[in-house]
Please model this.
Amino acid sequence: MNKLILKRDNIIGMILVAMGFIGFLNTVMGEFSGGEGVGAHFFPQITFIIMGISGGIMIFEKSDEVKKEFLPVTPLPVSIFLLTGVLYFFMLRRFGLTGATLIYLIGMFMLLTPKPLKNFKSVLIPTAIILVIIHVLFNYIVELVY
Amino acid sequence: MELLITAITNAFSIEIILYTCLGVFLGVTVGAIPGLSGDMAIALLLPLVYKIAPGSSIGMLLGIYKGSMFGGSISAISFGVPGTAAAAATVEDGYAAKLAGHPNQALMTALYSSITGDVFSDLVLIFLSIPMASVALQFGPVEFFSLYVFSLMLISILTLGKISKGLASATIGLFIGAIGMDPLIGAPRYMFGINQLRSGIPMVPLLVGVFALPELIIQFAKEWEKIIARKMDEAVNRAAFLGYETSKDKMSFRIYLSTLKATMIGAGIGTFIGALPGAGSSLAAYISYGMAKKVSKQPENFGKGCLEGVAAPEAGNSATCGATFIPLFAFGIPGSATAALFGAALIMQGINPGPTMIAENTLIIYTLFVILIYANFINLGFGRALIPLYAKLSMIKSKFLVPAVFAIALLGTYASRNSMIDVWVVLIAGVLGILMRKNSFPPRTSRSGLHYRPGSGKILEASSPSRERGLDLSVKKPNCDPPISFLLGFYSVCLFYKPEKTYSHG
Model:
């Protein structure tokens, strides 16, 4: 039993049960407008019941192994990836579409090039091509306002 | 008849043809590049749908869908790397055929079989959706709700992996869909004091986040791992074509005829599976491959570069294209991720998928049918002319692709409403999507749950027992003599009885 609980899927199952339980309690005790028929709480109530049941099943099921292709997906690269997106949008307001995209693309290409190959010149051509595509698409076709 | 002529005239307008061509080009391109898919391209372009006329946007999206189905086979045959999950079955014989010195025959067989399967499926859609929609018009709220439950159960069962995860995934989608104002009485739900959530979580950024971002994150993480490990990119093996003789690799009509049986098996199976909610194109491709092998006179040649082994899965996956729209058009139920995205695009154009859609938007639907057919021939033309270029495109490195697609995804989402909230939704949905994928939760089911929510919730609340009305379970519905809701409910329960999992590919 201990072995089961320690596995990843079993923990997720417990989280789902907890979410289903809290959600269900909220639909019973929370402030939901009644109105005509069964009220606004009825649909989420059913959803939370099924969520709890499926989570309950997962607690006692054999846990799936993480597939090989997902092994590199750790919190660090995911955080860096998302952070670059946020930074890009902050730069967009400060430097405009072309400036922000230029900095973002060069930064990302350099970041993703291994050290022996890290070379400013090698990323210039792909940067220029993508920059032109984004510039035309969002300045002239979509007419982005930022 | 007059309407049909107007629809044909509309469909053949220069603007729509150009957008369809653009869609096919984009579709084949993203299909050919491993890591990108037609679904991702449709999700990325959803924000732009607002800016384009309905006919043109439909043409472009259909072009992407059709193009990507064939595009996946290009890298599968050329490099043994399926461009899309649906093309995984094609690798088996397609790559073997290439190594045996017949890359052209394999690619052309994939193209012709794709087109044949697709046309067959489109014709089934055209001739079946209108009568089915008229049947659906007889349905009351209870029948519709039962149908929603049944198809959601079917998706949970047919989607790869555990049923419990399929169900949990569906409830996550249903919960996200429940955020915002209740559709029937307009009461707020789970808005956490954020007024912008009154109309629910915005659909476009959510779809972009759940569809496109996880794949980009995976690619980024792989590149990141290489940096950490200080690995150099492996040189691409370009020596595979040594000793290649073009004269022995010419495609002919005779070769096409020799693969026709396998193609038609794929077309039939793909159309049937495509119409089932949740089954998907990769399942269709594998079953078609298996069936073609079973009925082949030389099954021992399968896996060794046999062209029938290319034709069957390619016809199978492409034949899901038209059929996947049958439940969407007839019942308003998106049976696949692509249908769900397409449904969102239609809603953005003011067309609500469902039984009344064809009656209310006859002209645009007829136009769509015409585009469906001729987009296949555009696909054929592009495929024939550009296969060598597409094969090169599939070699673009992830380190250039990922940042570019991510930037376009963020900008496109922001552009749809000029709202920073949408950008945050994309990023959060991306985290949710990658967590689900990493833990083997099928995101497809949650997406379906999300799409089912507005319709099914409203219908459930409309059909459920109330203080004034008694329990009404459709037995006395005016137009549905048999208690359809009971039957569907019974089948939904039966689905959980020893469900066989015979399919294990991604």
Confidence is low (pLDDT under 50) at residues 1-5 of chain A. Chain A is about 70% helix and 0% strand. Residues 6 and 62 of chain A are 11 Å apart (CA to CA). The radius of gyration of chain A is 24 Å.
